[in-house]
């Protein structure tokens, strides 16, 4: 029995594990799962593995609350961008509602990337249709809708 060999093997396994974990996280982020929620889940897992000794349940709750807050802020940025690009207040609200509906529909149709595609398409359509119903030209409605997508 050679403890030094076990330590070397463990070091190699840890390095391989970290590399694989990094690749998986990069792919999950690329698919469109919010990074703040990935971080929250990782903190929860770390706390669970250590028996909530270093990371308490309070820490997990605080980080999860911050993650939810950041996602809500990001959610409303589409509406603010629509306002910046000349959309009406109603169009900004329609962009947010369209993004929410698009996300729900998109994730139910195409699980890995449907949420992202649905969010973009729903926000665009919500702002565009609202602007057209307000009597704006195609160019103005398109500008407001693109501003929503950029937001």
TrEMBL record:
Protein name, per record: DUF456 domain-containing protein
Transmembrane segments: 12-30, 92-125
Lineage, uppermost ranks: unclassified sequences, metagenomes, ecological metagenomes
UniProt keyword annotation of Nucleotide-binding present: no
Pfam families found in the cross-reference section: DUF456 (PF04306)
Coiled-coil regions listed: none
Record bears the keyword Transmembrane: yes
InterPro entries: DUF456
């Amino acid at each position: 029995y050679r403890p030094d060999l076990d330590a070397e093997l463990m070091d190699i396994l840890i390095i391989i594990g970290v590399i694989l974990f990094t690749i998986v996280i990069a792919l999950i982020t690329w698919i469109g799962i919010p990074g703040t929620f990935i971080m929250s889940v990782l903190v929860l897992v770390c706390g669970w593995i250590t028996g909530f000794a270093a990371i308490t349940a309070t820490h997990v709750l605080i980080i999860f609350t911050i993650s939810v807050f950041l996602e809500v802020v990001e959610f409303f940025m589409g509406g603010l961008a629509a306002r910046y690009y000349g959309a009406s207040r109603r169009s900004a609200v329609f962009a947010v509602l369209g993004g929410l509906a698009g996300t729900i529909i998109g994730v139910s149709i195409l699980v890995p990337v449907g949420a992202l595609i649905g969010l973009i398409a729903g926000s665009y359509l919500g702002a565009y249709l609202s602007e057209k119903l307000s009597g704006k030209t195609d160019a103005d409605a398109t500008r407001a809708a693109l501003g929503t997508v950029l937001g």
